[in-house]
Amino acid sequence: MINTTNSTIQDQLYNERLFAEIAAASAASDYDGGFPAHEFALLRASGLLTITLPGQALCYDKASTPGLLQLLKNIGKSSLPVGRIYEGHINALLLIASFGSQDQKSRWFEDAGANLFGVWNTQDAGGLEIEDTGNGRYRLTGSKTFCSGAGWIGRPLVTGKLISPEKSGWQMCIIPTETVKPILADSSFWKPLGMQASASYRMDLTGIEIGEQDLLGLPDDYYRQPLFGSGALRFAAVQLGGAEAVLEETHRLLNDFKRTEDPFQQSRIAEISYLIETGNLWLNQAGELYDRWLHMPGSAEKLIAYANMTRTIIEDACLRSMQLAERSVGSRGLMRPGILERMHRDLTTYLRQPAPDAIQAYVGKYVLDQQNTTSLWT
Ligand SMILES: Cc1cc2nc3c(=O)[nH]c(=O)nc-3n(C[C@H](O)[C@H](O)[C@H](O)COP(=O)(O)OP(=O)(O)OC[C@H]3O[C@@H](n4cnc5c(N)ncnc54)[C@H](O)[C@@H]3O)c2cc1C
């Protein structure tokens, strides 16, 4: 059991030794077909796979979102692929906490220490169907894409179109992988610029049969707001961690190159520093507002707009920081196996998240829909 005293929480969120070990291991996982197995063994041993469960340090009903975002950022700084997969695990546990029955919560929370969870929602034209075959049984047909963690995920939460005479909509289910037909992994889908170690393959679930106890929530619960829209804060936190790693490595290289006295270098480092601090200020504020607004009647759209702004600001801060870092260290600093070369590829890839234009437009529409702009975010 994790002790939830303040000092212990701080130790877990800022476990520098653990994060350094993950960072040190991450170069070895960076290849086509790689997966950060050692890094997840470290996370499991540290207790961080269960830190959001009831009674634990960052339990969801404890208004602990700023702490969770700090943790995600710190893991992302060590390794963006590890941050991506860990965020999926945390997201699945949040969805179970929000929509699971008491029985399901007990069963899946019990599994969380030993199994990795993931959320596989993205799909291409084919998509996934969950067909009600009667007597509480369901057959899956089709595949999901960008399935981070692929076959290393023991409890994938997948979404699909429910085909049933009684109900319809977008249904979540959690696959008990050891008791069903194997999910077919297609790694040929995953030839990205970066984030190789996130193992975000296409997964074919055709022929898998599950029971009523494996369905999570009601159809369309997955998109229930503001939970869905505000989830962008978690991946933005991981991304900001990547930018912090870029700053740290640029700082190290400039010292190595003995180029710290140059005013242009000082100016660029200054800009990266305040961009990242801006991201941190947004993230902390957004975490506090999330805890205040999530269950406050009438605050759903405001929370989504605030999360969208945070995500956009952090994306811009990451992109600009990478550009400034490149100019600062030059080609010598971007050589393999240097950290900056990998972080650059990983962050460029991981910054591509769904519908960036639509989320910015949402903010504009939200603001224009208000009577005036005097108290937008109070
Ligand atoms: C490393 C990594 C891991 C991932 N892991 C997972 C995972 O575990 N589970 C999961 O479910 N997903 C995962 N994803 C998928 C991710 O959530 C996004 O769905 C995916 O990255 C889509 O990115 P995109 O740039 O192709 O987005 P798009 O939404 O296609 O955006 C590309 C551009 O097109 C614009 N655009 C979008 N829609 C339209 C439109 N209708 N008309 C005109 N323009 C449009 C956008 O604004 C943007 O400018 C992962 C992605 C990455 C990169």
Write a brief caption for the model.
It is built from twelve helices and nine strands. With 378 residues, it is an alpha+beta fold.
Question: Can you give a write-up of this model?
Answer:
By secondary structure, the protein is an alpha+beta fold. The chain folds into 3 domains: 112 residues, Acyl-CoA dehydrogenase/oxidase, N-terminal domain (Butyryl-Coa Dehydrogenase, subunit A, domain 1, Orthogonal Bundle), CATH 1.10.540.10; 101 residues, Beta Barrel (Butyryl-CoA Dehydrogenase, subunit A, domain 2), CATH 2.40.110.10; 142 residues, Butyryl-CoA Dehydrogenase, subunit A, domain 3, CATH 1.20.140.10. The chain has 12 helices and 9 strands. Strand 2 and strand 3 form a beta hairpin.
**Helix-strand makeup class:** alpha+beta
Beta-strand residue fraction: 5-15%
Q: What ligand species are in this complex?
A: flavin-adenine dinucleotide
Low-confidence parts, pLDDT < 50 over ≥5 residues? none
Task: Report Rg.
Answer: 21 Å
Give the number of helices: 12
Q: What is the mean predicted local confidence, pLDDT?
A: 95
In CATH terms, the superfamily of the largest domain is Butyryl-CoA Dehydrogenase, subunit A, domain 3
- First CA to last CA: what distance? 38 Å
Q: What's the number of extended β-strand segments?
A: 9
List keywords for this structure.
binds flavin-adenine dinucleotide; Acyl-CoA dehydrogenase family protein; Butyryl-Coa Dehydrogenase, subunit A, domain 1; nine-stranded mixed β-sheet; Butyryl-CoA Dehydrogenase, subunit A, domain 3; Butyryl-CoA Dehydrogenase, subunit A, domain 2; 378 residues; 9 strands; 50% helix; alpha+beta
